[in-house]
Specification:
The complex is a heterodimer of chains A (370) and B (429). In chain A, strand 1 and strand 2 form a beta hairpin. Chain A is built from 13 helices and 2 strands; from the N terminus they run H-H-H-H-H-H-H-H-H-H-E-E-H-H-H. With 370 residues, chain A is mainly α. Chain A has one domain: Amino acid/polyamine transporter I (Up-down Bundle). Chain A starts with 8 loop residues before the first helix and ends with a helix. Classes of the chains: A mainly alpha (370), B alpha/beta (429).
Chain lengths: 370, 429
């Protein structure tokens, strides 16, 4: 049974880090520079700080409910209906982001490597990996994260380091980019870059040290924030604004540009390996969470039979966008606008109501006992 | 899951991986025609003339066996409205599929460059087969002719031949090593303009032609030293007729003029890209030998002691540019009888070199400002960093301001070593 599975804090932090940071190898540095120009890195730094503060608040509120996932808390707050409603909301969020990211990965791999392979075949290949991950469960997925995430992080840092000769700090000027207003307004929507942190609230029952979930989240936010800021900063130092808004896969572009002597070049071939590994880890974790949330929301006994119908749904949904740009738009124009509300505001509301009702209940018990 | 089932699953997966790896995107290197260089000309009907210099791998040599230089490349020219349209035509008639992943050089004719290169550069940046480090050159004449006459002489591998030639700017300073990605980035920049490598075909066939050419130069007032030429004017007799010297200067995507080899060296100095180059300057005491008509020269090996410091202040809407360059060098040759290896003579040489190079750098900078109206040294980025908001920077309109800039150059040469001689004793008359 999945409920008996336990994972360590480091494993949980690795899952969070990969879930939040995978977007770096997709389009993140470009979209950030589209939003705030040369000050994109400042926007992401501020976003990281805000997310950190929000998380501290959530951690304080969650203390009473340590060991319970967000759906348990919603049940405490709003009863069975609340649990089902929020279950559906989070399920929809994960379904939406997974299908779009799956399509993006497939389209990206078509552009950079498998140019004549039909996109459906590429999606199918990723789906096979997702099924294996979700089937083997959280323990296998988390252990694989522990093995892969440090290697992927080192490989990514190497790409940034090899680009050092191309960095020019003056490319970050004008320092406040598209203006304070753009930083503030877009910054709020871009809190959604951290939306996958909500996964931590579903990992709660599996943590070996339930009380330390705050630490897991803080490490996850710190390192993912660090990677997001670094990626934007380095990308903007290598490609000045507005050229930085043109490249479809910024990190791939940076990997392509690496040339150390005549021998050490074309390392983007290695990049594709890093890239596919991140994709498999991200997508299989997401499929796991989708089946887990559905199982919990509807109090089902088994999770594994849900894998087949959900992978068919995700596969179909991922083919809905007409083209690559529509898939990107679906993420930039829709997901980013609402995801931060679902990931940070809803948990705060749920926790506030649950705490309030718990207090009422305890007062009522006190009165009745007197 | 039982052990047997696991084994079967692993075997099935391994076999599937083995046999499906090349389902759609299989490509045999043997089935590809690798482009070494691409040339673009304007055809009279409005089409593009696309010339490909293809590598013939078997002639380049296999393993330890040496190849045949003469047959190592193959040339093909097609007229089409777009580059990739032309490639399609070529693909339909040769036995292999054209591939650009090993292309080293893109040559565009001056005629096309003057009309604007944005539409071509876009293809090179967007199409993933082109590498970002492919060099970009502008030829005064036809790109097709240029590629036709290019033949590797000291190198079997045509790809390496082009790469080595283009990289030579690091030790000659006569070119700039501009790549398509660098060019594109600069072309789109709001604080500077791009340059490309200047290429040409030499009209010189024998030593007699060379003398004729030099006669033209001797009529000029200025002293003509090595590198004071553009690619087509180089006084060289050599089997390979293609030449690389100087830079093609752009304003936006349109070519605005050319720099000679020496001017390109000053461009590298101001931009902080100077490698380790030989630099000749006239001796302080001209004609000190027995024959006063023969001038004496000193050759230094120069390099940048540190990156140039550039500061810009805006006074009454006019930029006041201050460039501080610190060079260091070794004495590698003195043709005269004076010894500058030590003491006061060394100090004199340092002052002389500083003054001489400074004068040339100022004249080069003035040329970029007055003649080309193009900030190729990216002085603008030092102004841009004083701005907070993008909108304000765009309104400031740097390209317009650069045309009125006041240029001050502060240049110092430090001679660190006198070569492997510490003194020079003149021959007794």
């Amino acid at each position: 049974m999945d409920q008996k599975t336990t994972i360590g804090n480091f494993e949980a932090a690795c899952i969070l880090l990969n879930l939040v940071s995978t977007k770096i190898i997709l389009d993140f540095p470009r979209t950030a520079s589209e939003d705030a120009g040369t000050a994109a890195w400042i926007m992401i730094l501020l976003d990281s700080a805000v997310v950190y503060l929000l998380f501290l608040l959530i951690t304080r509120m969650y203390k009473k409910f340590a060991g319970k996932d967000l759906l348990d808390v919603s049940e405490k707050a709003l009863g069975k209906t609340g649990k089902t409603v929020f279950g559906i909301i989070y399920l929809a969020q994960f379904m939406y982001v997974t299908s779009i990211v799956l399509r993006q990965f497939a389209e990206d791999i078509k552009v950079i490597s498998l140019s004549t392979t039909p996109v459906s075949i590429v999606i199918l290949m990723f789906s096979a990996g997702m099924i294996v991950g979700a089937w083997l469960g959280l323990e296998a997925v988390s252990r694989l994260h522990v093995l892969a995430v440090p290697i992927l992080a080192i490989a990514y840092i190497l790409i940034l380091l090899f680009n050092i000769p191309r960095y020019d700090v003056t490319r970050l000027s004008p320092w406040l980019g598209l203006g304070v207003e753009a930083l503030a307004v877009k910054g709020v929507f871009n809190l959604s870059y951290f939306s996958e942190l909500v996964a931590l609230f579903f990992l709660m029952p599996f943590l070996k040290k339930e009380k330390n979930f705050g630490e897991v989240g803080r490490y996850g936010i710190f390192f993912s924030g660090l990677f997001l800021v670094l990626s934007t900063l380095c990308y903007l130092m290598a490609y000045q604004y507005p050229t930085s808004t043109e490249f479809f896969l910024p990190v791939y572009q940076m990997a392509r540009a690496i040339k150390i002597g005549r021998f050490f070049a074309r390392i983007e071939a290695a990049f594709i390996l890093i890239w596919a590994s991140c994709a498999f880890l991200y997508l299989s974790s997401c499929l796991y969470f989708i089946t887990y949330i559905f199982q919990r929301a509807f109090d089902l006994k088994y999770r594994k039979p849900l894998i087949a119908p959900f992978i068919v749904l995700i596969f179909t949904l991922s083919l809905v966008p007409e083209n690559l740009y529509s898939a990107l738009q679906a993420e930039m124009q829709i997901y980013r606008i609402f995801a931060w509300i679902i990931s940070f505001i809803f948990p705060i509301i749920i926790l506030a109501i649950a705490s309030f009702r718990a207090r009422l209940r305890s007062k009522r018990e006190e009165v009745s006992s007197q | 899951m039982s052990q047997g089932l696991k084994t079967v699953l692993v075997i099935c997966l391994s076999v599937t991986m083995l046999f499906t790896s090349g389902c759609f995107d299989a490509s045999e290197p043997d089935d590809m025609a690798y482009v070494v260089a691409l040339g673009l000309d304007r055809e009279t009907g409005g089409n593009l003339m696309i010339t490909l210099l293809l590598a013939v791998p078997i002639a380049v040599g296999v393993g330890p066996e040496s190849g045949e230089i003469e047959n190592s490349t193959n040339i093909i020219t097609v007229a089409a409205p777009t580059i990739l349209g032309g490639i399609n035509v070529i693909d339909s008639m040769i036995s292999k599929r054209v591939n650009f992943s090993h292309a080293k050089l893109v040559v565009i004719s001056k005629e096309l460059a003057e009309q604007g290169v944005e539409k071509f550069i876009n293809t090179f940046i967007r199409f993933r087969e082109f590498r970002p480090d492919t060099y970009l050159g502008i030829t005064e004449g036809s790109a097709e002719e240029f590629l036709k006459l290019s033949k590797p002489v000291l190198e079997y591998n045509p790809s390496k031949h082009f790469e080595l030639i283009m990289e030579s700017f690091a030790y000659t300073g006569f070119s700039n090593g501009s790549t398509i990605e660098e060019f594109y980035s600069k072309m789109e920049s709001t604080c500077g303009e791009p340059v490309a490598v200047l290429l040409d075909i030499s009209p010189i066939q024998e030593v007699r032609d060379l003398t004729e050419l030099l006669k033209d130069f001797s009529n000029r007032n200025d002293e003509v030293l090595e590198g004071d030429y553009t690619a087509g004017e180089m006084p060289v007799v050599y089997e390979n007729k293609i030449r690389q010297m100087g830079s093609a200067v752009f304003r936006g995507d349109k070519m605005a003029g050319v720099l000679t080899g020496r001017e390109t060296l000053y461009y590298l100095m101001v931009s902080g890209k100077l490698g380790d180059v030989y630099y000749t300057l006239p001796d302080l005491n001209e004609g000190s030998g027995n024959m006063p008509e023969i001038k004496d020269y000193i050759t230094l090996r120069l390099s940048q002691a540190r990156k140039p410091e550039i500061s810009v202040t805006i006074k009454e809407n006019i930029p006041e540019v201050r460039i501080k360059i610190l060079l260091e060098g070794d004495i590698v040759a003195i043709t005269g009888r004076n010894d500058y290896s030590t003491g006061d003579a060394l100090k004199m040489l340092e002052e002389h070199a500083s003054e001489y190079i400074k004068e040339k750098v100022v004249s080069f900078m003035e040329k970029t400002r007055d003649e080309f109206k193009s900030d190729i040294c990216f002085i603008g980025k030092h102004v841009k960093k004083t701005f907070l908001f993008w909108e304000d920077w765009l309104k400031f309109n740097w390209p317009e301001k650069y045309e009125k800039a006041r240029l001050n150059v502060d240049l110092e040469v430090k001679i660190r070593r006198p070569g492997i001689m510490v003194k020079q004793i003149p021959e007794m008359d």
